[in-house]
Write a structure and sequence with these properties.
Length: about 180
Amino acid sequence: MTFSFTGGSEYAEMSEIKLTGPFSGMLAFGPPAAAEYQLNITGTGIWSARAAHRDTPLPLEIPVNLSGSGVTLTPDVSLEKGEYIFSRDETGLFSPGYELRFANGSYLMDADNSCVQPCFKPDSPDTFHIIKIPESGTYFLSAFPRSSPHPWNVSIAAVPVIPAMGPGPVMPQDAQL
């Protein structure tokens, strides 16, 4: 199925989901302003869709473990400005794609504005990436496996703060190790 969400020539997002059976899931779109938008869906078989604002209960605090099955959105997560470890269970082509988004649905891009964090490439063997949160706030994760349904698990934890190096004990010149 393909999903496109557009607002004139100003805004467009598209998602494609490969289905291997019955599907129930959620996709996020982050239009930049209040306006009229159009949602186009193309797929075979019988289907129905509903467009709605996300329910946003109190955000989860880190460290947090998130899991799901298939294409879905996680609950909100409260993150402070800084660095975090984003870990995943599956790697390479078996791993779902993950996109961190601001609470308003817009993408959380990396510092170079070249990819949506956590920035795993499709065939990446990495089990984790360090992500940089540019401002404190509420975020959520959009997960989209290559086929659906497909279970997935991730965690987000703060990068530990390493104390600054300082003067240590003075070693006598004639000390033997």
